[in-house]
Amino acid sequence: MTTSKSSQEGPNGPLVASVRKRIQAVREKLGYSWADMGEAFEFSNTFVHGISREEDPQRIRTKHIDKLIQNLESLEVKAGILHVGDRSPPSASTAISVAHLSLEELVHAIAAKGFAVTISPAAKP
Fold first, then answer.
1. How many angstroms separate the CA atoms of 16 and 35, rounded?
2. 23 located within any domain
3. pLDDT 10s per residue in the chain (125 long)?
4. 51 near 20, Cβ under 8 Å?
5. Residue 83 DSSP class
6. Does 124 map to a domain?
């Protein structure tokens, strides 16, 4: 479970600047519109835009933080962004979310770690 203290300025408050920057970076890297971001985060596009604004960011209820961070981490994998910073090891929710990634998203995640990936059909027995 993600700690809201590392993601929010306070209970039911705005996201910290580092999380807002991560959202912006993913949006730019993937070339997503705000509508795409809303769909990916399972929130409205105006809400995602509001919580990620640099100036006067909208507040978010603490109960939504785990879902938001899990979706953000999945988008970072999809974008091939290797996020390094003052974060704890990936949460259990991240490990679960990896199971839902497409083959292409998994390849991008592996490549982001500096590995070359080769995929070939399995030999038939």
1. 22
2. yes
3. 444 568 899 999 999 999 999 999 999 999 999 999 999 999 999 999 999 999 999 999 999 998 899 889 888 888 888 544 434 445 544 444 566 667 777 777 777 677 777 888 888 77
4. yes
5. -
6. no
- Helix residue spans in the chain (DSSP H): 17-30, 34-41, 45-52, 65-79, 92-98, 103-112
14 found inside a domain: yes
pTM score of the predicted model: 0.65
Interior/surface letters 114-125, b for 16+ CB within 10 angstroms, e for the rest: eeeeeeeeeeee
Provide the token pair at 57: 């960011």
In the block, tokens 């909208």 appear at: 58
Residue 121 lies in a domain: no
Tokens of 34: 């705000």
> What does the radius of gyration of the chain's CA atoms come to, in whole angstroms?
16
Number of domains comprising the chain:
1
Q: Is 86 left (phi over 0), alpha (psi -120 to 50) or beta?
A: beta
* Residue 51 domain boundaries: 4-112
